[in-house]
């Protein structure tokens, strides 16, 4: 039973905009170290950075038919998130689909499978995170689902979740927790800015994070090379 | 018994020039989705794009002696295609061999093994597709073959076949079929240009490819998020 | 028992400077093809090239506490070399630690594990060779060692060894052999410059390296395509 | 926020018993080709076959503390399903935990990470499906969750789902759909028994599945070797 | 254009029988170290050993339709050799097809893709060499070829070639060279039997193979631990 | 410069005998979780268990010449430990060398490369831990070292170290620390026997290891499924 769910809720535009100012590592920390997709997803060019609402798409191995179906229900600001039902490195996506997605306002693609037309996608600056690069084409024979909950690269992704991707990887934030996570991530980001300055000025992490006592308690010993 | 075959036929220069205008994915489609080398072959810099006649070379694992032999029988417009007789990630090729190949007009290298001197090769803009990067050197102890039929990264390659490589991978076209394949690939390319324009203007693939009826026949259902 | 060794000897500054002029492949050859770290270590941006004295750090899997400890004993010109006690792809290192290392004069990082903040590290031009990229953070719970002999990516590295890394990989030279190796590597480099020129002028490696007789002895046969 | 959920519902005992008579491939087909965990999960000995109710456990990378927590809420007939929050090959599980699980009636273990004590586990005939074998131990420093929904090897698993594992892999069936799936799987199994007999008697699949017409429509041609 | 070639020539029965007495490593040596399929092909149970005539089958990724087509043209003594046109780990083959192949006298399967029903295949003692194990099923939508030349796991295989497989891997021998190769392989096997006896009696390979002089010429030095 | 070191010291026979009673995981724990070789080393048959003194051998990639050299300096009770200078999956070792090693009392082989003749080695019950299985043969062209310190699968191994291998992997113990490590490992083993009995009797690890308080301090919460 294959379905397309229309009119799924989208994430709040201002929240998405807020996440766009932050890196994946920071958001992942603000999530309590959850929500990170497997690191086999890599950007096809660097630097790349995108944030948007997840438009989910579940596809059979080696079959990209449902991507065309997904375009129709896309809205500006969506990020298309594609997961095959079993591992596939075939090239599901190229410049034609990118042109189509862009025409409908889709901001980028996250796919746990292969893509092709790298030169063209790079020139278009259409950001893509994929687990493979392959010129091998797909067929259009078997249905899948659009805008249903999926698992992509090891993480559950629901329609309407916020997806953020950069050079470090891809993270997903549940729509219902987005406001709270964004606040924590911004706080963390501000705190890191202060720490970065102090570290760049030469202050030691040992002092800044008050580590010395705990290290000693755990038994760390210092010896001089001359004494060895 | 190791042999070097001299005076192997080359592909027609105009055909090669024609293929140079086309991407690997397009040619692969025009071939009925055959001829694609395994996706472990990646360009050492991007973008990169080459087309030429295959100059084949079969080498022992970890031994690059035959590459020097191959240079002598190279002709302008050749692409050197190298396959080890068993899997090897050793660095068979670097800037000295690149200088030598370039002096003899060779347009690029495709090798199912390792290469080194990446910085220099990139600066020279000598295009290389390899399955590994390794500073580890090879020995020169055991013979192989030059200009005999080989299997490279899972595909049979015969001397004189046309090899095209770009950011998506590497494809090989039999010399005898090249004219016909080129025509089909150009037709496909022109057709894609038209489709790209329509998709970029917002037309849906669902309509452009007449998919709606077949999707419905297969049982695709649309539901509204509010009804779930 | 975890230790930090203070005041370990450093490599001679002029030797390090000498190695900085040379590529990893050349040095590896001058070492008799030893000293090369596993090729899973790749630079996070290219081109990249660094030479320095190894500041060694052994860490538990998924735990980066000791990196902060290492900063305190760092000296200008060091390259931090980090090895987990068992395989880990977690992101041990990001822009904050890079700011800290740079403030103390550390020239780069070699780590057989993951790093994050790629965009920031690339913008800072802080050179890093790692075996993984991951936004996943580490904990700070378990001790390790700083400035003790380690094995990193399959190679023994001692504090004070010279580490050189470029686009081809990473090589380590024992401090006691550095002068001799540098001389051999420079000799090789000069010799290669001469050969490069001759090859670029079209001379065949077959002639330049006197290979023809040995090839014939081994039984290489030449045939003409027309005779096949 | 780490939680242990007590008194989660279990699958019906008779349904579980029904699934125990069936292979993973058959159940996967009856599920419409969904529910299959990634094939990196392999049994530590063969043949092995288990069916039970999922007792879920989410663990930090390299930290097996929560496994001890899970034992307390285990019930006879459970299969422990363990997923690390990021990829880990460390040895989370050995004979002591197996003895403990068995004492509480747990029928087997499915873990997307490493295990150790293979000789002892094999001798005990405690069935384990894991993605790695490693003598490397874990720490007990960070919390996780027990009996919450998880993603294991790419599949969502909820407490109370039915898990079936055999030499071919691991499949999960939602508790609410179990009765219906079991019926379809049994029907399929009976149907396959009939087909197996006919095929073993020499009948061709071409005839039994009425394939000839469709193959011809798609354009399959038969030629004789003598005509080539 | 998809074809099935009927009445392809088979290898001589006595030659096949001769090869069945020999191991893959020995035959590979007798072939001058050629003909070995990639080592990702592993037997599903051990020990396993088969020799037969190659019945070739080229299949699309994730589509096993052509296997049913191949059964019809199988003859007793054939070994089915299956290669997907691009990499696939899907489960193409299980007990039903095994029952069918056995009914038509096929001696085993070599497939550069996935198989399932391991427990049943093992119990049937139907020998299979595959590159993956997966319960994931295939579709039957796209044609391929039967009894045409293919490349399987990196080696060209023609209908009628002799295929031998054991615990070490899979090797292919061209039909036209089979008699000569068999003779060399038998000679090598006899010679090894003599060597095995001498080595088992304690004679050193250094003496038996006359290695001492050549080792000394290359510069091997012996030192005593006490002198270090 | 290639050397063979004669008369290297061996580990104490009684210590080796003591380690033979213990599993790799237990010894690895007694070593403070050090000394474990990379988990890519797997036994060719199971169960397998060996302990002995390391006879070290460093070999070029794809070249097994030095194995013959190593046999001459082997002594009863040695375990041959072989490391290539760069990664290699070639089959370095088969039944002839096994017959030779056994004739000289060598108890087993640990090799970070490929082996062949699996059926014969298994029938001989000659225990082997390798990182690959391959029928592909090696050459005998380049020297290496015997009985010098090496790095095998990521661990330093010195001649005379004690090597223990079982189904879980391979661990190395420095000769000078062996007595102390053995004592700790035996203590641990005795302690585990007591724990195993208590766990098998149904006692919870939570109680036996006094974990409840620390879990609560870290914030673990228990909730009832009915309250969710």
Summarize this, please?
The structure is a homohexamer of 228-residue chains. Chain A is of the alpha/beta class and 228 residues long.
Description:
The structure is a homohexamer of 228-residue chains. Chain A is of the alpha/beta class and 228 residues long. Chain A contains 8 helices and 12 strands. Chain A has helices spanning 13-20, 24-30, 65-73, 95-103, 118-124, 178-200, 205-208, 212-218; strands at residues 3-6, 42-43, 50-59, 78-84, 108-115, 128-133, 145-146, 150-152, 155-157, 162-166, 169-173, 221-224. In chain A, strands 2, 3, 4, 5, 6, 7, 10 and 11 form an 8-stranded mixed sheet that branches. In chain A, helix 4 links the parallel strand 4 and strand 5. In chain A, helix 2 crosses helix 6. The longest helix of chain A has 23 residues, at 178-200. The mean pLDDT of chain A is 96. Strand 12 (221-224) of chain E pairs parallel with strand 1 (3-6) of chain F, so a sheet runs across the interface.
Overall mean confidence score, pLDDT of chain A: 96
The number of distinct helices of chain A, counting runs of at least 4 residues, comes to 8
- Our estimate of the beta-strand percent of chain A is 25-35%
Low-confidence stretches of chain A: none
Give the C-alpha Rg of chain A: 21 Å
* End-to-end C-alpha gap of chain A: 70 Å
State the shape of chain A. Answer: elongated
- Class by helix and strand content of chain A? alpha/beta
